[in-house]
Amino acid sequence: MVSLYQAHKKIYPRSVSGLFSKWRWGLVFLTQLVFYGLPWLEWGQRQAVLFDLGARRFYILGLVLYPQDFIYLTGILVISALSLFLFTAVAGRLWCGYACPQTVYTEIFLWIEKQIEGDRSARMRLDAAPMSAEKFFRKAGKQAAWIAVALWTGFTFVGYFTPIRELGLSFVNFGMGPWETFWVFFYGFATYGNAGYMREQVCKYMCPYARFQSAMFDKDTLIVTYDAERGEPRGARSKKADPKALGLGSCIDCSLCVQVCPTGIDIRKGLQYECIGCGACADVCDEVMDKVGYPRGLVRYSTQHAVAEHWGTSEIIRHVFRPRVMIYTGILLAIVVAMLVSLSMRIPFKVDVVRDRAALARIVEGGKLENIYRLQVMNATERKLTFKLRATGLPGLVLVSEPEVSVEAAQNLWVPATLHLPYDGAKPGSHAIHFEIEATDGSGHLTEKSVFIVPR
User: What domains can be seen in the chain, in order of their start residue?
Assistant: First the structure.
């Protein structure tokens, strides 16, 4: 019988220390400090970052964005995609190895597992041992810690959409709404399952990035590489033995590079799609090289061209800044600058004009033609604004409703607007007009199109 599915063998990553490990843990602390801490920061009298879906307002520090500002979300997504392409072209899967939530939470859950169950060999012995009181309490303690971290993660995630202090009070008083409860447990369950159990399976079988990353790689991309020319043929030997006399390379075949790999691959087999570029194998290999007295760098960040051509650091850097990378960088900088300029020039209010459909036009006292409109004025600042309204486009067109309107901070208001035109002021039909809205504090001026209907 031929199985269509590969049997899953649990991976027990060995702990490792070194330059890349320090970078990885530094980014774990940084990303989680931002994720867990940002919802608790205040900006004025509100939460600094809050995506209020009910009110359809997004607060990001001093910015108040509305659904009409969707273009900025599009810009952020484009910047994120181009950044991913740029980083991948330069240095492979840096995102996966250091900042991807899957990697970050797997590192956290592995650290908890190590603290409770012990190092790699201790965890393997514990899993192989029959159930006992010690095994039960260690496993239960690990599960409790995992669940606590997962639920806190889910709670924090929901805190970006519901004010987190209100959410905390609701949680303590068992008063959370059904959707809030669902998303806390859903996101918590996803964190618990992905980081606690699925781990490398997410990277290997579920993440699409692993499948199309090769399209962004070339032979000048920095990747974790094994120097086969220097390392082969591999084999064990005493520390005092001369490898050249034995016909051996620098690799002592200790397999530590496999033991520390979070996805369980052997980097000595060359570039593999499962490799997330975390550099753990480079750290442990450098430790081994130090112990046996060989030069570091048997496993290192380099490029395929650099290893084959024996390039130095300056040559590697020169080839990193190749046309493809410079094009990505230029496009990315242009979009970032355009976004910043657009935000700096953004008018802090918006207006939508809606015609009253109940009566397209009518004749009122004095023989005037009347059209009625509704203006939705949205104040995107956090201070009260007063606006002046007027209409242009036809001779004799007059705004007879209130010419000024005040809108509270970060609020929107529907304002009725009535226009009058002399009876013979225009031919029958539809005529283009403009509403002009100006903030009295000089913060902006908008012109919105509409039409004035003259009946036959």
Answer: 7-346 (no CATH), 349-454 (2.60.40.10)
The region of weakest confidence among 27-36, 208-217, 428-437 is 208-217
Quote the CA–CA distance of 34 and 49 in Å, as a whole number.
11
CA dihedral 89, 210, 19, 328 (to 10 degrees): 20
Within the chain, what is the greatest distance between any pair of CA atoms? 113
Residue 36 is predicted with a pLDDT of 95
Rounded to 10 degrees, the C-alpha dihedral 209/214/217/218 comes to 180
Judge whether residue 145 has pLDDT over 60. yes
- Token pair listed for 330: 């230029």
Tokens 């929107």 sit on residue: 412
Q: CA nearest 409: which of 446, 437, 377?
A: 377
- For tokens 């959370």, name the residue: 176
Give counts: helices (H), strands (E), the chain.
17, 16
Question: 86: closest CA among 75, 95, 73, 77?
Answer: 95
Single out the residue of 239, 295, 285, 226 nearest to residue 260, CA to CA: 285
DSSP category for residue 97: I
Q: Would you say residue 6 has pLDDT above 70?
A: no
Which two structure tokens, joined as six digits, stand for 28?
């774990």
| pLDDT, position 125 | 92
Of 270, 289, 186, nearest to 224 by C-alpha is 270
Q: Tell me the β-bridge partners of 39.
A: none
Three-state SS for 103-120 is: HHHHHHHHHHHHHHHCCH
| Average confidence (pLDDT) over 216-226 | 88
